[in-house]
Amino acid sequence: MNKILKRTLIITGVIVGLLVLAFVGMALKLKSEMSEFTPMETGHIVDNIFVVKDDFTNVFIVQDDTQYIVIDCANNPATVEEQMKSLGINPNDVVAVLLTHTDGDHVGALGLFDNAKLYMSKEEEKMINGEKSKFLWFGNSLPRTDYILLEDREVVQIGNLKIEGILVPGHTSGMMAYLINDKYLFTGDILSLKDGKIAPIPAFFDMDNAQAIASREIIRHIPTAEYIFTAHWGFTDNYQVAIDAAHNSQNSLDWAGTYTGVIPCADCEGISVSLTLHPDETYLLSYSYLGKGNSFPIMISGKFSWNEAGSTIFLNDAKGFPPYYIVGENRLIQLDMEGNPITGALADKYVLEKNIECSLPE
Question: pLDDT for 41-73, tens place per residue?
Fold first, then answer.
């Protein structure tokens, strides 16, 4: 019995030690990545839009006559309240709060706005009801339950402000950007801005990097947008320059190679896919249906082309197989037959990973 107890204690100690090391490592990584944040200082930005800085996060405030709406709530209620008062804005005059997502650094000062209506995406509710979590079993939480859930592309009118919610999952399962009056785009944590251009955030922070890549492609196709406001990386007043593809997958990634994976299938166990992209922009596609007896691979070859942004390829003559793929770092993300991001519970399964060890024939 003593030997069993001793062995149990040793195993428990090892497990606890490994967990402690893991948490310490994550804390150090978190601190390192956060040191790269570049939030704006408190003040007036443009037109009727103001910003409050709380540590490493920005709160955006949009004025509509004598009332205001707030996008995200940062960390510290006392700091946010003090900074708002320095702008001459009373938290009691806020009539609506729009949450891009429910991570702690975006909901900390929510208690300042108890009288305001609270909006977030329908998908984001999964982050607070236990259906989804970023790390193990640690989910997000809110101090309120009277929130209003928005569908993708749903529009609400608050005073003179037209607000469109745009689902951009990846950072969290229900991340939502907000387009106000068809002009001002608030993107939360789905992207950063580097030298005035859209860039990824550190993958460490994303719940699903493949979804985040697809969501940034959505952000690039909002034709009326003029401004982009991010939670940690400032803003730009030139949307067109921000989405310009000076540095893109086509010219910045080592995309040539073979990508493989098993994607969902409606009436079989899955579709085994192998897609090879050659430097001369030709491809070889092979796929087979798993669990269907004698299902021989279907082989297709042809040319592929890039979209204008240099982020997505189209397989010419794919003969009914999905032809659109977002090209990411060592992965391809399959889009639907019209070239739109795939949504739903299985969205993260439509990914082909690059075979790093596979070399292309000369």
Answer: 999 999 999 999 998 999 999 999 999 999 999
User: In the chain, which residues fall in CATH 3.60.15.10?
Assistant: 37-244
Q: Cα separation of 261 and 269, whole Å? A: 13
176 contacts 163 by C-beta, under 8 angstroms? no
- The CA R_g of the chain, rounded to the nearest whole Å, is 23
Question: Cα 288 from chain centroid?
Answer: 31
Task: Kindly report, residue by residue over 11-43, the tens digit of the pLDDT.
Answer: 777 776 666 665 555 545 455 555 678 899 999
Phi, psi of 22 (to 5 degrees): -65, -45
Residue 237 near residue 226, CB atoms below 8 Å: yes
- Distance, in Å, from the CA atom of 226 to the CA atom of 316, rounded to the nearest integer, reads 34
CATH 2.40.128.640 in the chain, residue ranges: 251-354
Task: With beta carbons less than 8 A apart as the criterion, state whether 323 and 306 touch.
Answer: no
pTM of the model: 0.72
Tokens of 169: 């999952």
Q: Which of 196, 197, 188 is nearest to 170 (CA)?
A: 188
327 and 347 in contact (C-beta within 8 Å)? no
Enumerate residues 6+ apart whose C-beta is below 8 A from 44. 50, 87
Third-level CATH fold of 37-244? Metallo-beta-lactamase; Chain A (3.60.15)
The answer to whether domain 251-354 has CATH 3.40.50.740 is no
| Helix (H) or strand (E) run with residue 259 in it | strand 257-263
List, in sequence order, every residue forming a beta bridge with 50; answer none if it has no partner: 44, 61
